[in-house]
Structures are given as structure tokens and as C-alpha cells.
């Protein structure tokens, strides 16, 4: 038996402060998550300066808890992994600075991790990865199709041209009177209604693998406003169901198109919106019908949101590939995988 | 006692290593904005030059604000995480006191370290030496520039420690004869910071240690206006 390899992982890219201890990249020994949602709900969305202030209140407390829950000391660690982008710069800086401090104090390797790779690796806790693989990443900040020809290689083959899907959920949620974050409630309402409004499915017919949600969002808002002006009350469940049906169509059809162009062994669904039951069910059904040879890996529900366990899993792979950051590691708010021109 | 002192609260970034009140090594950069890139490499470099290990540190002293919000968070996060992980005492000192401490203890008169907080406001403190000890004469505050000037005494020398931006100068084209502006004194001396920190009581709860912003966020200020009487609750929950 080889000696186990323990990583301490940090995630602070948005409004969750999270620290985890991961064994061999596949086993979560602790995954402390302090969420600021209740704070930002006061403002109807994440306020970056408020987020940064909360992170600094939480960071050492979460670290101590992660280590003690895991029963691991600094001497046991093989390295420190940290999200350095993409995300809010002020938020990222807290995790990056804390990770650097600990790595420096104990002379441990510092492993930089792309937050989006982290989201993909949330699914690593479900099954071992087989390549080539693909990931549909859907969150409040991102909507992208990532092709992975081999381990440690990420290529964006399709992405949103405007709003991220989670962002669209929050915006239409506001129109429906649902507080931020709206995804979960819209999902629940959608199951109580029917797709009666038939909102547009933008770009579904186009050959490219990009997404667009702003047209759908505008159609939704216009429909509600026009009804308001007529003094008419629309059924909120049907509105939610119609919106979600359009979202699910767009996501599923583009993903199936991508799979036809890039045959893969596994498809990962990850990111905050991966918790959406409509999206999960539809991908499951479409995959079984159209690409039965591709295995669907659904990130565990509790790892769909931002957390350090996923950063630890991605960081483990980075560690094995020799990724190391210096003490000058900085936050990179616009960090992104390379975009490649898809085959057509 | 081996002390690491650091300040990234404003444009300059400074680190000092001080042992038994003697300066062993210091570096100040006044040309960069990105303290996140330079502060730990600077610490690492100085520590190697004096052959100290992180575990040798007996005390970490940090300028805890007021200052640029991002700047003070970098130093405070670094300091509190190092203190926690090394189990080393931590001291937070006002960034403004640290500026005043750069002037010699023989200075008589009132020292008023300040820096621009935009929109006609400054962060400023009022300090004086009493029996050789730097003593706050008023709390560090977010002042309207005009109010700060109006509050200054007229019967003793006053030293404004900071650079006047064109806007601040415009708002006060002439200053009373007892008021002298010392723009070069605005640079924090981390050696002076370390000496202040050597005497101060360490932070009791490192986890709860946060910067002194001296201002709530704009979002919270607006929210409080529309939610009078609602006190800030515990908004962060572990899930
Ligand atoms: Zn995320």
C-alpha cells in the first residue's frame, strides 16, 4: 500500500468560503462550507465587497475545522490546492492568500486550480474518469461545454454568448418575486406547471455549440409585463415550467450535438445548475436514447455548488501533473480554459 | 523576540523583520499596485537573508487599516493565517498609528496621518507623543476633509502626514500657520510598526480578526436606510 496523499484545498471564488481535506484525490475527509447566501439575499444578489469581508471572517475558522474534522495535521499534508480563478477578485484573493500563507509556513507545494476544473471534478467522487470525456458546466457565472481529450486537458467547445444559465434563472426569478438564488424554487414550480408559453429556444438550430439565454429571458419578462399591463395574472407555475422547458431544450440539444461531434466515454454534468432536476432528468433520457455508449456522471447534489472538495479532487490531478504555483500566485478573475474552434 | 511586520494598506507595500527591537531587514515597494503578487515573495526573500524559518517567528504585526479595502485584506488575511497556522501571537495596529510612529518620539504637536478616501473624505487619525509613548488623541475616523480641518487645534503645531491630492488642496487652498503638511511622512515604516506591535497586546481571537475598514459597505449602508432598526445578524452559515 502506498502512503495516502492528503491535500488541503481552498475555495473562495464567490460567496462560499470552503476548506477541505482530500485523501488521494478521491476521498473527502472534510469539506467545510460557510455560505453567505443569507447576507447577499438582503441585496438581491452577490455584492463583491460584502463577499470579500465575509470570506476574511471565515477563512481561518474553516481551515481549523477542516483539519480537525479530517484528523489531519499540517505535517501530514502533501500540498495545498487553491482556486485562483475565475471568480470575484476580492473573494479569490482571500483563499489564494490564505493558501499561500499555509503552504509557505509549512513549505508545502502550492497547487493552483481552475474553479471550472473543480466543478468537473465534483463528479470524480461518483466514478473514475475515462477519456475522452465531456462536461456540461452550468452555474450562475458559466455555461460551457468542455471537451477533455485526456486527463488534465480542457477545451471549451461551446459557451454562452450572453447570460449564464444560472443568471437567467435569477433574473426571471426576480420577476416572479423569488429571492436570489432563484434556481431551486423555479425548478420546484416548474414541476407544478406546464409549458404553455412556448418561449424561444435561441440558437438551437445553429450548427455551433454555443448557447444564448438573453432572448429567452427577454421573452419571459415581456410576457409577464404585457400581462401586467392588461391587468392579467399569469400562472406562475406555467411560467416557470415554460422557462425551464426552454432551458432544458437548449442545454440538452446543444449537448447532444456536441456528443455527435466529439464521441466520449463519459459526460459530466456539473456546476450549481446541475442540481436542477429538469436538467438532470432530460440529459439522462436523451443520453440513453441518442448516445447510450456514453456514461452520464452527475455531480453529487451537495457538491454541485461551490466547495473545496471539488478543488481538492482537481488539485490532486494538477499535483500529479506537476502544476505548482510560486509565492507570487495571484487571483485571476477572468481565468478560462482555451476555446477551440469546434469541428463542423 | 523575532517579529514579522507587514503593511499593504495603501500604495506602498512594506515588510520588516525585527529582532529585539533591532531592524534586521526591510523592503518597501512604492511602485506596484498588486500587493498580492509581491508581499509573500518579499517576506520569503527577507526571511532567507536573515536565515529565519517561519517557525522562528515570535510575533506577527500587521497594519490592519484603515486603507484600501483590498490592500488591508491581503495583509490581514496573510497575517491571521500565518499566526493561526504557526500558532504565533498576532498584533493588529492602526495603519494611521503606524504612519505617526514613523516620526521621531521627540516630535511635539499633533500628528494627523491621513489619506484620501475620495468624494471629499479622508481616513485620518490624531496622535501625539506623551512621555515618549505614541498616544491616540481621537479615534481613527472617516472624516469629511473640511470637518477634519475644522477640528484641528489652533494653539499647537499640527503635522498633516499625507499627500494632498489636487482635490483636497483645492478644498483648502490655505492652511493655518500652525499646520504643516508632510507628504513624505505618509509612508508606513514597518520597523516603527514592529516596535508598536512589540508593546501591544496580541489579538485574543485570531479567527475573528478582521481589518478596520472604518466604513460599512455601500450596499449595507443603503440596506440599513431601508431597514431601520434591523441589526446585523449572523449572515454566514456553515452548511
Ligand atoms: Zn462555481
Layout of secondary structure:
The complex is a heterodimer of chains A (344) and B (239).
Chain A: E1 6-11, E2 16-23, E3 27-35, H1 37-40, H2 48-70, E4 77-85, H3 89-105, E5 110-114, H4 115-121, E6 133-138, E7 143-148, E8 155-159, H5 165-175, H6 183-190, H7 214-229, H8 236-261, E9 266-270, H9 277-290, E10 295-298, H10 308-320, E11 338-339
Parallel strand pairs in A: 1-4, 4-5, 6-9, 8-11, 9-10
Antiparallel strand pairs in A: 1-2, 2-3, 6-7, 7-8
Helix pairs in contact in A: 2-3, 4-10, 5-7, 6-8, 8-9
Chain B: E1 2-7, E2 13-19, E3 22-29, H1 35-50, E4 59-63, H2 69-86, E5 90-93, H3 95-100, E6 110-116, E7 121-130, E8 133-144, H4 145-151, E9 158-161, H5 166-171, E10 179-181, H6 190-199, H7 218-226, E11 237-238
Parallel strand pairs in B: 1-4, 4-5, 6-9, 9-10
Antiparallel strand pairs in B: 1-2, 2-3, 6-7, 7-8
Helix pairs in contact in B: 1-2
Zinc ion binds at residues 115, 119, 139, 306 of chain A.
Fold and architecture overview:
The complex is a heterodimer of chains A (344) and B (239). Chain A has helices at residues 37-40, 48-70, 89-105, 115-121, 165-175, 183-190, 214-229, 236-261, 277-290, 308-320, and strands at residues 6-11, 16-23, 27-35, 77-85, 110-114, 133-138, 143-148, 155-159, 266-270, 295-298, 338-339. By secondary structure, chain A is α/β, with parallel strands linked by helices. Chain A has two domains: 6-121 and 304-321, ATPase, nucleotide binding domain (Nucleotidyltransferase, domain 5); 128-298, ATPase, nucleotide binding domain (Nucleotidyltransferase, domain 5). In chain A, the strands form two sheets. A six-stranded mixed β-sheet of chain A has the order 10-9-6-7-8-11, with helices on both faces. Chain A has a five-stranded mixed β-sheet with strand order 3-2-1-4-5, sandwiched between helices. In chain A, helix 9 (277-290) links the parallel strand 9 (266-270) and strand 10 (295-298). Chain A is globular and about 65 Å long. Chain B folds into two domains: 2-95 and 188-217, ATPase, nucleotide binding domain (Nucleotidyltransferase, domain 5, 2-Layer Sandwich); 97-185, Nucleotidyltransferase, domain 5 (2-Layer Sandwich), CATH 3.30.420. Chain B contains seven helices and eleven strands. Chain B has a five-stranded mixed β-sheet with strand order 3-2-1-4-5, sandwiched between helices. In chain B, helix 1 crosses helix 2 (69-86). The longest helix of chain B is centred in the first third of the chain and has 18 residues, at 69-86. Chain B is globular and about 50 Å long. The termini of chain B are far apart. The model of chain B has no long low-confidence stretch (mean pLDDT 94). Classes of the chains: A alpha/beta (344), B alpha/beta (239). Chains A and B meet through strand 3, helix 1, helix 2 and helix 3 of A and helix 1, helix 2, helix 7 and strand 11 of B. The site of zinc ion has 4 residues of chain A, from helix 4.
Amino acid at each position: 500500500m502506498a502512503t495516502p496523499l492528503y491535500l488541503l484545498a481552498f475555495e473562495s471564488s464567490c460567496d462560499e468560503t470552503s476548506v477541505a481535506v482530500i485523501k488521494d484525490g478521491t476521498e473527502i475527509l472534510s469539506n467545510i462550507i460557510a455560505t453567505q447566501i443569507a447576507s447577499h439575499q438582503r441585496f438581491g444578489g452577490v455584492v463583491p465587497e460584502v463577499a470579500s469581508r465575509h470570506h476574511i471572517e471565515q477563512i481561518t475558522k474553516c481551515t481549523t475545522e477542516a483539519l480537525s474534522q479530517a484528523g489531519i495535521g499540517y505535517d501530514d499534508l502533501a500540498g495545498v490546492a487553491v482556486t485562483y480563478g475565475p471568480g470575484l477578485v476580492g473573494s479569490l484573493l482571500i483563499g489564494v492568500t490564505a493558501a499561500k500563507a499555509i503552504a509557505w509556513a509549512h513549505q508545502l507545494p502550492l497547487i493552483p486550480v481552475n474553479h471550472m476544473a473543480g466543478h468537473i471534478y465534483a463528479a470524480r467522487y461518483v466514478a473514475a474518469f475515462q477519456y475522452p470525456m465531456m462536461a456540461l458546466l452550468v452555474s450562475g457565472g458559466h455555461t460551457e461545454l468542455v471537451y477533455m481529450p485526456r486527463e488534465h486537458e480542457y477545451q471549451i467547445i461551446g459557451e454562452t454568448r450572453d447570460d449564464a444559465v444560472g443568471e437567467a434563472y435569477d433574473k426571471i426569478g426576480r420577476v416572479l418575486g423569488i429571492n436570489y438564488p432563484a434556481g431551486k424554487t423555479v425548478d420546484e414550480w416548474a414541476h407544478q406547471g406546464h409549458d404553455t408559453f412556448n418561449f424561444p429556444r435561441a440558437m438551437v438550430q445553429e450548427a455551433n455549440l454555443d448557447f444564448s439565454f438573453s432572448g429567452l429571458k427577454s421573452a419571459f419578462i415581456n410576457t409577464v409585463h404585457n400581462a401586467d399591463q392588461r391587468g392579467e395574472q399569469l400562472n406562475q407555475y406555467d411560467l416557470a415550467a415554460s422557462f425551464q422547458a426552454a432551458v432544458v431544450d437548449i442545454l440538452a440539444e446543444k449537448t447532444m450535438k456536441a456528443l455527435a461531434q466529439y464521441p466520449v466515454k463519459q459526460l459530466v454534468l456539473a456546476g450549481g445548475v446541475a442540481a436542477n432536476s429538469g436538467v438532470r432528468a432530460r440529459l439522462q433520457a436523451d443520453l440513453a436514447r441518442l448516445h447510450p455508449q456514453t456514461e452520464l456522471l452527475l455531480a453529487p447534489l451537495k457538491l454541485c455548488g461551490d466547495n473545496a472538495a471539488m478543488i481538492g479532487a482537481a488539485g490532486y490531478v494538477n499535483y500529479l501533473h506537476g502544476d505548482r504555483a510560486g509565492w507570487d500566485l495571484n487571483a485571476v478573475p477572468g481565468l478560462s480554459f482555451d476555446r477551440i474552434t469546434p469541428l463542423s | 523576540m523575532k517579529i514579522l511586520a507587514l503593511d499593504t494598506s495603501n500604495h506602498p507595500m512594506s515588510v520588516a523583520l525585527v529582532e529585539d527591537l533591532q531592524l534586521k531587514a526591510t523592503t518597501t515597494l512604492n511602485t506596484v499596485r498588486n500587493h498580492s503578487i509581491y508581499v509573500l515573495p518579499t517576506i520569503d526573500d527577507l526571511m532567507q537573508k536573515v536565515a529565519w524559518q517561519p517557525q522562528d517567528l515570535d510575533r506577527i504585526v500587521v497594519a490592519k487599516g484603515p486603507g484600501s479595502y483590498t490592500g488591508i485584506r491581503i495583509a490581514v488575511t496573510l497575517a491571521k493565517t500565518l499566526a493561526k497556522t504557526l500558532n504565533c501571537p498576532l498584533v493588529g495596529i492602526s495603519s494611521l498609528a503606524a504612519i505617526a510612529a514613523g516620526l521621531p518620539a521627540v516630535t511635539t504637536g499633533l500628528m494627523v496621518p491621513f489619506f484620501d478616501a475620495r468624494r471629499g473624505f479622508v481616513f485620518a487619525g490624531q496622535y501625539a507623543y506623551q512621555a515618549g509613548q505614541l498616544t491616540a488623541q481621537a479615534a481613527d475616523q472617516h472624516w469629511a476633509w473640511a470637518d477634519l480641518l475644522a477640528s484641528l487645534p489652533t494653539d499647537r503645531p499640527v503635522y498633516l502626514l499625507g499627500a494632498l491630492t489636487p482635490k483636497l488642496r483645492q478644498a483648502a487652498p490655505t492652511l493655518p500657520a500652525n499646520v504643516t503638511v508632510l507628504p513624505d511622512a505618509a509612508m508606513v515604516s514597518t520597523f516603527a510598526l514592529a516596535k508598536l506591535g512589540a508593546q501591544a497586546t496580541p489579538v485574543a481571537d485570531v479567527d475573528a480578526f478582521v481589518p478596520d475598514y472604518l466604513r460599512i459597505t455601500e450596499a449595507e449602508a443603503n440596506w440599513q436606510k431601508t431597514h431601520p432598526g434591523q441589526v446585523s445578524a449572523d449572515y454566514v452559515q456553515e452548511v
